[in-house]
Amino acid sequence: MPGRGRHSKIVRRLVIRPGGIGDCLLSLPAIEALRSDYLEVWVASQNVPLVRCADRVRSIAQTGLDWLGLPDREPPVSLIQLLRSFDSIVSWYGANRPEFRQAVSELGLPFQFLPALPTEPGLHAADYFLAQVGRGDLAGFPQLDCPRWQGGFAVIHPFSGSARKNWPLENFRALARWLEKLMPVAWCAGPQEPLADAVRIENLYELACWLAGARLYLGNDSGITHLAAAAGAPVVAIFLVTDPAVWAPRGERVRVVKGGDPADVMAAVTSLLACESLLPRQ
User: Strand 56-59 and strand 12-17: pairing?
Assistant: First the structure.
């Protein structure tokens, strides 16, 4: 992406990144690579606290962007004025919506559309997003600047955005009983996820900072698993249906278990949990 010359005007750039927690986190290295004199980022409402590199972060839902390109709907005048204030708009939003792209073109807005999902098998999503913005030379390791602390506990988050991705809850409970011989175990859940006595922290950055103190995090292929990895926690991620080569969380202390047979997954997870490198002494 072009920057500004010595005597050029200040460049105002907008980045629009829809999607879930994992999508946002895996895009963070690319978003950070797009920093300019002024950077504004629009994301899903829950992800607003996760973007720390921008001058301003807004919720997509609050901008009126969803109205643009809809038949028999007029987008807010304030939205068009705001979009016209940017010199560069890099958008993962609307890439597959022809009516949105047409509306943007007719308005003469400086959009560059990027496919929201990787298209190359085996290429990690974070690397793919970096390559999209011309910075494939950078390391695609999302990181959140959370204070480091030692809580000495394990965290289990047994959910995800799809039931197909979820390892059976009773298996997580069996692992919790084993882990409780080594350390306290805390369960983590989102606002709508049914789990008694679970820790629930709505602000995702605050949740990340709590996860940063975990001695171990265990979970499915989920946004919260990506969050734990970005916060620097030791992570064991269980992938049942998606390709970890593309979608695994990244981090020096991340381990991925891939499989479908519950017994095989259980054996692999317990083997990993026995590793001193993953469970350092407190």
Answer: unpaired
